[in-house]
Amino acid sequence: MFAPFLTPPYLPFAIAFVVMIGIGLIEAIGLGLGSLDLDGEIGGAGDGGVLDWLGLGGELPILIWLTSLLGCFTLAGVAIQQGATALAGAPLAWPAAAAAATLAGLLLNMVAANGLARVMPGFETTAISVDGLLRRRGTILEGTARRGAPARARVVDDHGQAHVVMVEPHDDDDALATGDTALLVRREGVLFFALPDGHALLRSI
C-alpha cells in the first residue's frame, strides 16, 4: 500500500513527511521553542505584507508554522501525484510535482497557519524577547553567584514559561546562594544582573 510513496515521484513528499514528524518529536520532548529565548523578531511586514500572506504575520512560532507548511506540502504533493496517476496513468516527474505542491502547500498553509494562530493562543507565550525577563524575580538553581562568577537561575515570565539564565549580583559586595531569589534589573548580552530580595531598594517592592 505504501510502496508508491517510496518511489522517486513521491520522494520530496516522503522527505517532507519525515522532517515534519522529526520536528513534532522534538517539540514533544521539550526541545523546541519553549526552551529558547529569542531576542529578535521577524519584521518588515505590515498588514497585507508577504509575511501576513504566508501566515507568519501573527504570533505563531516559526517551528509550528514550518510543521504546518510541511504537512500541507506533503498532502498537496500526494494529491497531485494521485490525481496525475488517475488521469494519465502515471505520476508526474518529481520536480514538476514538487513545484506544483509548493505553490499549493503555501496557499493551504496560509489558511492553516492563520487558523492555528486563532485557536491556539497559548503558542503566543512560547517565544518572548529576552528583555521581557527584566523586572522578574529569579531563583538561583545551584552554586553561588558573585560578581565575575555567575550562576544559573530560573525565571518565570508573564505567561508562566520557565527560563534558565545566567545571573550575577548587581552590586559588587552581594552574593546569591542556591535557593535565593533576586530581581533581574539589567542585562548585558546573555548575562543578567540582579538585586537580592533582601536589598534595601527592594524592601518596599
Automatic annotation (TrEMBL):
<feature type="transmembrane region" description="Helical">
    <location>
        <begin position="92"/>
        <end position="112"/>
    </location>
</feature>
<feature type="domain" description="Inner membrane protein YqiJ N-terminal">
    <location>
        <begin position="11"/>
        <end position="106"/>
    </location>
</feature>
<dbReference type="Pfam" id="PF21001">
    <property type="entry name" value="YqiJ_N"/>
</dbReference>
<dbReference type="Pfam" id="PF07290">
    <property type="entry name" value="YqiJ_OB"/>
</dbReference>
<dbReference type="InterPro" id="IPR010840">
    <property type="entry name" value="YqiJ_OB"/>
</dbReference>
<keyword id="KW-0472">Membrane</keyword>
<keyword id="KW-1133">Transmembrane helix</keyword>
<protein>
    <submittedName>
        <fullName>YqiJ family protein</fullName>
    </submittedName>
</protein>
<dbReference type="InterPro" id="IPR048376">
    <property type="entry name" value="YqiJ_N"/>
</dbReference>
<feature type="transmembrane region" description="Helical">
    <location>
        <begin position="62"/>
        <end position="80"/>
    </location>
</feature>
<feature type="domain" description="Inner membrane protein YqiJ OB-fold">
    <location>
        <begin position="135"/>
        <end position="194"/>
    </location>
</feature>
<feature type="transmembrane region" description="Helical">
    <location>
        <begin position="12"/>
        <end position="33"/>
    </location>
</feature>
<keyword id="KW-0812">Transmembrane</keyword>
